């Protein structure tokens, strides 16, 4: 009986979630294809946080996620330098891309994850892909130091953005012509096309994605997805528990 009750409760909760999403008016202009760029030493949650949110969206709205890298070889989060993994731990997962930069489909939303690997000086192909793809997307979303990666690709000039506060000193140097906001959970920039949304540290990316769902689909969708994830949302983009003390850097 206990198992039956657990299963019934799970089905009930999931049905409630899906019903609330299906009850929302279908937005004919809603995005179809989301592309997440992978590089060695990407941050796990920067990739799977948005993926988790979009999986729920896909239950009621056609949603495709493609994982894009220079090759189809598995991309690892393992550090390239032994000094960054002194105990030779094996706690670093890999993710196999679905497409390369040359085979990737046209994207509605380009998602740029962060992670220590954004600093890699050998990311020329990755930067070229971002540089050429971003202008053709309807929206660019950066998670954590993904905004620094975007800045390296040259797509953040003249924009407002935020980034991971622990990585702030290095990250902001990547965009000398970017207005960096040191106190923000996330920042929305509509100064030019396409809009670019940037989030602060790792979990801020989940709050940004839930806000994205609320704006793109329906407020109830975002509320119920957060509830199903048991995630306590920060809804105010100006509320930043990890804010830096600097004034805005321009």
Automatic annotation (TrEMBL):
<dbReference type="InterPro" id="IPR052158">
    <property type="entry name" value="INH-QAR"/>
</dbReference>
<keyword id="KW-0732">Signal</keyword>
<dbReference type="InterPro" id="IPR029062">
    <property type="entry name" value="Class_I_gatase-like"/>
</dbReference>
<dbReference type="Pfam" id="PF01965">
    <property type="entry name" value="DJ-1_PfpI"/>
</dbReference>
<feature type="domain" description="DJ-1/PfpI">
    <location>
        <begin position="37"/>
        <end position="215"/>
    </location>
</feature>
<feature type="signal peptide">
    <location>
        <begin position="1"/>
        <end position="23"/>
    </location>
</feature>
<protein>
    <submittedName>
        <fullName>DJ-1/PfpI family protein</fullName>
    </submittedName>
</protein>
<dbReference type="InterPro" id="IPR002818">
    <property type="entry name" value="DJ-1/PfpI"/>
</dbReference>
